[in-house]
């Protein structure tokens, strides 16, 4: 249930199908074949009473409340399960139907407690609404039904309760878990009045439930209810906005009481999520008002000093003075900045503008450096633009889905649900991943082929797959001839056909049997619409960019581009990775991926901004840190990133930060990077500002302000004020004006405006005169670069090698309940699912080292060592261990190395040679970090009072 | 930046372009470094080459030398 009632058609609307015309209550209506009578009636605005039906689920036909009369038919069929037919004449309201519905409602209410006034769903309950709609005035059967009042309320989930006494056994929760989420955690246990919704475990928390909220959303009563609603009451207003977690970019309504969020409800109108959500977006928003939020600007001379709270004016003046001092002493290029993939497009655009126009250099980078920078390089080389080719909906037309180096059920859960639905409907699945991720085999989903390659051998694998396509005559010759550069293709085909690229020749490298690779390649090439979805398991390698080009080669060779159901699709990590890249956050290019050396583009920016701009690429994040270690880079402005935790080789990162003379951190919390900062600008959460995010399908969606910034300024205002202190004039009254400037300067955004976004809900770039309502599928008739470009992708082994000292390979990643460096999710109840980073290790490797489940183990590499608890798991292959980097106290990146992608310097997080052994102590780094962490976060409270 | 790191990066770039015809490979390396390395990194590389270029892959070295000819960063280093 939700406060703001979006139109519920009762059953899903059909998008296609021959038109069918019928008459409902005297009015003629035409709908696609396959539409239910209930949904057809709702298109006329006639809501037929219902309880078990909702349009996110297929009809079930159990409540018997939606009965109608149809001329020529006996009885009163359920309108939800009755499809429309031409010439049908339906009556939804007759005396007989009213009597029948009242009778049904009497039965329901006889089994339901009548405590409406004190019920948490009072005013937000479909059962209550239906009792009113059918005119229920009396219950002849009394109140002695099996109300299950003695069944204990299940309060195990931190975010919602399950109260059997309120349950009408409509099965909406069970069906939502199956059809919408695809987890199958719920069932109906028992028969008749003894029927109860049950989980597979002892309770919700102990079951397979992933806490996505689909059941809560579907529940028509207070049976499944948010604890925040139980505590606070029903919301009184709502604000439509976009989730600030992963790159799926779900649309949510922030339902509020005044300036307090009561709950976040996924919007059915949101094209990225269509009413679905995950545990993070739906429930883990409490960090926004957590007591740890820093809401006052602070400065200090040394990182060992206490922080001193100051006014905004003093903070800006001090920061500007320091940056100008550094430039005077060490040169213009001695400072730089990092934009945030967690901030809005507008905020990101302003930061890179500040750096280019205000700092006078191009030392701007973004956290996409450490995740998807190879995507930008590889896809631009092959297709001409740095973005995925499809919209999310496209997966519904895929016949073969190849998931490479991605774990969507954990990292992109709402898209994973859409993908799993298509898989249940018959699409075939190939998983290329060192680990046996959930998609390999879970409820009603099983991969046709799992290719569990050794980490670091992606390119050998993609070459082997392509080798089969080329040598077995599976090329889509017409597509290649028409759409691709033939000369490049021929060079590539000759290369890929060489025996050394065959599955047989590469199986020793990859560890995957040749026959499985051959079978998977044949399926991809011949199984119909074939789509590739990939993640950081592709990009975070020394050959990340090569692998992206290898996937592009495979897709072009088989003609799997330019239409629904196909494509090459990066699953972006953070919410605005795509947008941050689009906005010109990389040191070598302006917004819209145009190189800084391009005179015409630079002229345009210089003309508008009124300052000369550098034509030279600036430093990337790792380059800045290298320079800092050497004493040549002295000042850094970091908006909304935590490089001291997220970036590889932590000791190198912190050495670089410690060597700087002025580090400015703008964030919600005193994160790990802030320990090395001299100026802290308090940031604003997504609830506190206006702007836009761009998700992994290039969809630009509005972020709308639901409450005032806790620190008084939104992030975009902070950047403007900092710029003004540096003498750079930026005048914007609202982020809409910043978007207007982006649109003016960026051809792919030329048609984007807040007005259009409000009208259409969202748009996918390119959005311009050629595509005024955006572009769901790219490269339909031609590639952006003209002809598709095949690139030779020679496999080159990583320099990171296992050996006697470090015989295992560590690969790192993410988990469902936590997000990136954890500063947000660890300030929510999500910690009940993942309270610490653990090391997953195969039973064979564990036994060899005498490691048992839960043991504290030391994880060592040439970069450093940390201790963490072991989880013995057959998800791993022998020789490979895995951990997450969510918890600062673990410090997983102390272990990762400085090796990186050849083209982009994206770190090679996925291949680190390590050793594991039992230990009884935390590592020296962990001990020191814990001791120094408290010291470096002290805030002088006396000064705080004085500042007030 | 440290010569060792720059050499490693340049050699990685050369590894990618090595499969292309010789002239295209040299041009590709030069173009890549020119497009993505900040001037200070390019200057440090030139200094390393002038000091003997230890560890630099011969193909990478040819790419660096090709780039140097029309690189203002190189001229700035010499002036």
Summed up, what is this model?
Chain A is an alpha/beta fold. Helix content of chain A is 30%, strand content 16%. Chain A folds into 5 domains: 19-93, Ubiquitin-like (UB roll) (Roll), CATH 3.10.20; 160-289, ADC-like domains (N-terminal domain of TfIIb, Single Sheet), CATH 2.20.25; 298-371 and 577-764, Rossmann fold (3-Layer(aba) Sandwich); 373-570, Dimethylsulfoxide Reductase, domain 2, CATH 3.40.228.10; 808-935, Barwin-like endoglucanases (Beta Barrel).
Structure description:
The complex is a heterodimer of chains A (948) and B (79). In chain A, strand 6 and strand 7 (196-199) form a beta hairpin. Chain A contains 30 helices and 36 strands. Chain A is an alpha/beta fold. Chain A has five domains: 19-93, Roll (Ubiquitin-like (UB roll)), CATH 3.10.20; 160-289, N-terminal domain of TfIIb; 298-371 and 577-764, Rossmann fold (3-Layer(aba) Sandwich), CATH 3.40.50.740; 373-570, 3-Layer(aba) Sandwich (Dimethylsulfoxide Reductase, domain 2), CATH 3.40.228; 808-935, Barwin-like endoglucanases (Beta Barrel), CATH 2.40.40. In chain A, 30% of the residues lie in helices and 16% in strands. Chain A has a seven-stranded mixed beta sheet with strand order 13-12-27-26-25-14-15. In chain A, strands 32-34-33-36-31-35 form a six-stranded mixed beta sheet. In chain A, strands 20-17-16-21-22 form a five-stranded parallel beta sheet. By secondary structure, chain B is an all-alpha fold. Chain B has one domain (3-78). Helix content of chain B is 76%, strand content 0%. Chain B contains five helices and no strands. Chain B has helices at 3-17, 22-36, 39-50, 58-68, 72-78. The longest helix of chain B is centred in the first third of the chain and has 15 residues, at 3-17. In chain B, 47% of the residues are buried. Chain A binds chain B through residues 333, 362-363, 495, 542, 545-546, 587-588, 595, 597, 616-620, 623, 626-627, 630, 632, 792, 794, 796, 799, 898, 902-905, and chain B through 1-2, 5, 8-9, 12-13, 15-16, 18-20, 32, 35-41, 73.
